[in-house]
Design brief:
3 strands, 3-stranded antiparallel β-sheet, mainly beta
Length: about 70
């Protein structure tokens, strides 16, 4: 997957005032995920835009930066 192969360098995320959920609801990312927070890739917020009641957020990947120090 793109997430596993670290091929994601930008996230465009929309937030809407709607609740969608349930066991069969799609998630933003599939696959196995990560085991430790230290393995999470960090992103920096680049821009925001209000679109009616919705928000558009654009994040860019931080290179070579860990989320939390290993304990």
């Amino acid at each position: 997957s793109f997430l596993k192969e670290q091929l994601i360098d930008e996230i465009i995320h929309y937030i809407a005032p709607k609740i969608i959920g349930g066991a069969k609801a799609p998630s933003a990312f599939g696959g196995e995920g990560i085991e430790k927070m230290v393995d999470a890739k960090m992103f920096t917020l680049q821009s925001t835009e209000q679109m009616g009641e919705d928000l558009k957020l654009i994040y860019k990947r931080k290179e070579d930066e860990m989320c939390l120090p290993e304990s």
